[in-house]
Amino acid sequence: MAAFRPSPAPRIANRERLIFALDVPDLKGAQRLVEQLGETIVFYKIGLELATSRHYFELLDWLVARDKKVFADLKLYDIPATVTAAVRQLSKSGASFLTVHGDRAIMEAAAGAKGPDLKVLVVTVLTSIAPRDLAEMGIGLAVEELVTLRARQAVAAGCDGVIASGLEAAALRRALGAAPLIVTPGIRPADGARNDAGRDGRGRATDDQRRVVTPTLALEAGADYLVVGRPIRDAADPYRAAAAIQEEIARACG
After folding, report:
1. Among candidate residues 242, 229, 233, the one with its CA nearest the CA of residue 73
2. Of 247, 209, 249, which is closest to residue 229 (Cα–Cα)?
3. Cα–Cα distance between 250 and 115 in angstroms, integer?
4. 3-state SS class at 98
């Protein structure tokens, strides 16, 4: 695999490359985790679970006030006019990243409505989706082909980057070049740091991520940011788990 090459200027600070998925049901639980993680995490993703609570924007404001960066993982998917209005609203929030889903018209609407401080990222194919799932949806393309197609559409539409598995990151770098952002979920540490993550109280598997890679492999393939949730959140010591991933990122990026 080719050696890691960092993104073009402005350079991404290594500590910002780790995005912690703050997937908890309530504001107090989210704030406790943020305080527990302290300086190990700079960038937080808040998604649909908290979006269905009453406190999504209260938490977003709370994080921004503490100089944390926020990834609003809302996967907006609606008619272009509605997406335009929603992205304009989000641009006032202080969030750094926002996800959208859907076709070229939705991508163009989001890209055209964002403010200067908000980057719009297009979801390519969810990391929970395997090839057989695409076939069941009537999609005849292989996963990598569909990811690359949607990524090309996103860049052509004016979006800042994509969400994609590390398994497709190398192909995307070849297809897109160095500039578009690649944000990679489905990250699983190789050193056992995930502890009991992915198991419920009876030991049953609960991890629905299928297309996963380690932090080093994702970065070597060309990913810019790594989204990690359960291996940190469900670790016996979340601070230590986050610090270990940050150390791996520092080694990989030099």
Report:
1. 229
2. 209
3. 31
4. strand
Q: 18 has which bridge partners?
A: 226
DSSP state of 236: S
> Alpha-carbon distance 13 to 195, whole Å?
28
Distances (CA, A) of 32 to 23, 125, 134, 149, 226: 13, 32, 38, 40, 22
C-alpha distance from residue 116 to each of 32, 44, 155, 204, 211 (Å): 31, 20, 17, 45, 32
CATH number, span 14-253: 3.20.20.70
Rounded CA-CA distance 37/239 in Å is 5
Domain boundaries defined on the chain: 14-253
At 19 the three-state DSSP class reads strand
Give the residue among 247, 218, 228 at the shortest CA–CA distance from 44: 228
Residue range 117-176, pLDDT digits in tens: 999 999 998 888 888 898 899 898 888 899 999 999 999 999 999 999 999 999 999 999
Q: Which residues are marked as active site?
A: 75
What are the backbone angles phi and psi of residue 37, rounded to the nearest 5°?
-75, -25
CB-based contacts of 236: which residues, under 8 Å, 6+ apart? 195, 196
What does pTM read for this prediction? 0.88
Amino acid identity of 111?
A
* Amino acid code (one letter) for 74: L
CA distances 233 to 7, 86, 194, 242, Å, are 28, 30, 9, 9
